[in-house]
Amino acid sequence: MKGDRVEIVVDAGETTRGYEIVATKAGRRVETAVRRGVVEVTEVTRSGVVVRTARFMATRVIALVEHPAQSQPTT
Hints:
About 0% of the residues lie in helices and about 55% in strands. The protein is built from no helices and six strands. Strands 2-1-6 form a three-stranded antiparallel β-sheet, with no helix packed on it. The protein has a three-stranded antiparallel β-sheet with strand order 3-4-5, with no helix packed on it. The model has no long low-confidence stretch (mean pLDDT about 90). It has strands spanning about 5-10, 15-20, 30-35, 40-45, 50-55, 60-65. A hairpin with a 2-residue loop joins strand 3 and strand 4. By secondary structure, it is mainly β. The chain has one domain (about 5-65).
């Protein structure tokens, strides 16, 4: 859903780096998966087409926070 976002904090040696993946358009969502020691965050369309992907070594990931989109109140 537009507005979904995932924040990732990664150990980069003597410092940390932060990344943010956001569902940028209506109908897109952000999915996370951990496979074979790799954390993969993808932005996907309604039909399942991958728009972009970010991959991180699982041993280097310090934090992964999912922020669901705020639902619009109906009036």
